[in-house]
Amino acid sequence: MVLAIILAVAAGLVGIDQLIKYFIVENLAPDGHVSVIDHVLSLVYVENRGVAFGMFQNHVWLFAVITLLLMGAMIWLILSKRITGKLFYVSCMLIMGGGIGNLIDRMFRGFVVDYLSLSFFPPVCNFADYCVTIGAVLLVAALLQGDRKAKSVPADVPAADTDGESHGT
Q1: Which has the closest alpha carbon to 51: 40, 62, 36?
Q2: Could you say which of 31, 38, 114, 156 is catalytic?
Q3: Would you say 71 and 63 are in contact if contact means Cβ atoms under 8 Å apart?
Q4: Predicted local distance difference test score (pLDDT) of residue 150
Q5: Which comes out higher in pLDDT, residue 61 or 13?
Q6: Active-site residue, 129 included
């Protein structure tokens, strides 16, 4: 049931991503530029043939295989219940949704459509990139939170009395 919910939300994120990209391609390609918030946020059409920040250009099939392997690993982790918790599940939704959104671009366009340009963050990104980035940060937080829970109360320590009195021998 959890996997079905995660996949449904991820599919919704893919839909949002693809809808935005369709709008960008139809209205800004090939050389469009629109200022949304002067000196802060612009929409700019960019064809990214690499990965994050345009690195490793023109390796579409390698990125597709890596994305599919990572999606498979996440599904395995969810099904195996090795990691659980809302934060982990939300991170999976975001990473899977963003990863699949960019995978669709790579497979059908040969590049990823990027369009969000922030004046204080030079690389042009897209909705899917932000989903993956936020999901990765949440995944780290979920893993750290999981470690703390496991170490916080040893199983062999008796529960403390609630009346505040000492009941020693």
Answers
A1: 62
A2: 114
A3: no
A4: 43
A5: 13
A6: yes
